[in-house]
Amino acid sequence: MKKALFFMLSSLVEDIMPKNYYCGNLEAVEIDQWVFDDLLKMLLPEIHHKLNDVFQGNQKHGYLINWFLCIFVNIFPYHTTLRVWDALLIDGSDVLFRVALAYLQIIKEELMRISQI
Question: What is the pLDDT of residue 24?
């Protein structure tokens, strides 16, 4: 069992996630943050504007590093996380963007009530 888990994790890191996602200066994660910011601006402009107001440019993407690197493990309940991972294994790393956008849409009302962090 341990061997199978190791190979699954190895495949996830080496084959499914973007190249060099978990090494060095995290450049690939930073690129994904900017791509996500463009998607958010285009698809959920109200939320994009609100997050810009709240963060005021400081660590605007700080939450995304946690979400993307941990693949939502620390965000969702166990069974939801397993569904995200299933989709990730089947559809690839684009799932990160879809899940993040969907989650922000789900918590939109709560986000709109935040005045500062």
Answer: 82
Give CA–CA dist 35/99, Å, rounded.
Answer: 14
Is the pTM higher than 0.85?
Answer: yes
For the chain, give the number of residues: 117
Amino acid at 101: L
Burial readout 96-117 (b: 16 or more C-beta within 10 A, e: otherwise): bbebbbebbeeeeeebeeeeee
| Residue type at position 79 | H
**Cα–Cα distance for residue pair 44/66, rounded to 1 Å:** 20
Instruction: Judge whether 28 and 20 are in contact, CB under 8 Å.
Output: yes
- From first CA to last CA, the distance across the chain in angstroms is 43
CA angle 42, 86, 35 (to 5 degrees): 25
Q: What does the pLDDT look like over 23-36, one tens digit per residue?
A: 888 888 889 999 99
